[in-house]
TrEMBL record:
Membrane-topology descriptor: Single-pass membrane protein
Signal peptide: 1-27
Subcellular location as annotated: Membrane
Keyword Transmembrane helix: yes
Keywords on record: Membrane, Signal, Transmembrane, Transmembrane helix
Source lineage: Bacteria, Pseudomonadati, Pseudomonadota, Gammaproteobacteria, Alteromonadales
GO CC, one annotated term: membrane
Protein name: VCBS repeat-containing protein
Organism this protein belongs to: Shewanella gaetbuli
Amino acid sequence: MRLNSILIPLVSGLAALSTLFTGSAKAQEKLTFLEYTIEADIELVQPAFSANILDNEGNEIIAIGVDGKYQRWLYIYGFSNDKLVLLDKQPLSHDLYRYDVYLPDELTDKRQLQKLYFLSADSLWFYQPGHAVLASVENQPTVSEIVNIAPISSITLVPQADFISRGQFVKDINNDGEGDIIISDFKEVHLMLSQPGSSAAIPNFTRQSLPLLPIIELTKSGAEYSRPELHITDTNFDGKDDIIKVGEGLLEVYTQLDSGLFTNSANYISVSQPISGVDWWNKRDIYGRQLDQSDLMYRKVEKIADINADGITDLVVRYTKSSGVFDRSNDYEVYLGQNKDNVLFFPREANSVIRADGTLSGLNFVDLDSDAKLEVVVSGFDIGISQIIGALLSGSIDQDVYVFKMNDQYIFPKSANLTQEVELNFSLTSGQSGEPVVSLGDLNGDGFKELILSDDEKSLKIYQGKAGASPFVSRSDELKFALPTEGSMVKLTDINHDGKDDLLVHYGRQDDKALQRKVLVFIAQ
């Protein structure tokens, strides 16, 4: 036997072992951040968010606030010479009640400029930058403006709004990478499809209306109207996304045409289970009251999308079972779609059921390991009498965070791959409740998302992502700062376009007054 025949496998094995330990060490490398602070001269009344709306370095940070005279303002911050500065500010009329911007998904070029839109009762408005590149408000005059670009018909008829908030009316409906507009009125849903190539000027639209009624809830004094929830995904295997509204026991589908428009009449996909697109607490019985919780079984569609990366749309349903107010459970049923002669079909029995202790809520599908298959992150808590009494005495209640990872057969396990505990706080004095931080993002750019949880009022625990059945390391990093009472105000997004998610932190009305004009930015290194 030659010596080489022994040494070569030995060297190869040592090299593989070295690679394994090197990769493990890299995954365990401590996360570091550069911290920036925005101190606004107005009270920030809506969560700040990040979007690429100016031809400037990285994303901008967009904030909405009110000054001492109750004038509303749009403030836009961005990086200039490694400093976070105010690039632009615009007064907002009180007839504006919603704003939104298209945020591209992980597969879209995030450097593409996006558009910031506003709604009033009868018009669509657009933030038009005054310069291609803005240095700062201090260095050059602001000549940008918010312009009226199109008349609309909507279900919101208020001439003056008490507040302005983020909406969900901008989406890429027809797969062209441009944000489109969706607006509902009392009889139809109106689509305004952006025309590619109009990014530098006022956008142009192709209009289409679909016979989709709003959600109508009858009350003793009249009726309440809200925009129907629409799902955008491919249902006929032509590679183009279609528009879906969930009906009672079926899916109402408007198919996308080669032109980018949609069919004017619906096709219907029957579902074996009695599904609905409306939450059970918004339903009424024959007496006009909420449904009886002593004997309740109800299936509400939560998601319609391809979750297992096989190119076929799947269906996720929240199955609520209740035999009383304190005896209720929510399971999430996953029905994997099938292609039957180019017709989307769902089986009668769920392929997987997401189930855990307590009442589950906050379902989130996310790709943790960049394999295009979606994992499940969901929260659960007990609502029994003993838990409620304990919560009243302590002012907090334990909340479990569960992570489920599907196997190679596209089946989720019966038990969670990972369970962590966070704390939900509330105040009997104010009648308001807090919210723990439960978020996910790739903070080190390795393709694996980290799990970010609140530890206490002044620190986050960050569990780095990794390959394997357990998606996170067991030992956490720590990031210390004053956490907002509402954990949803900690956002993760790649602000500087370096492939690593960063943290954007806003404070709300439940936080100290001194914090309500602050925004913290943590840039991952």
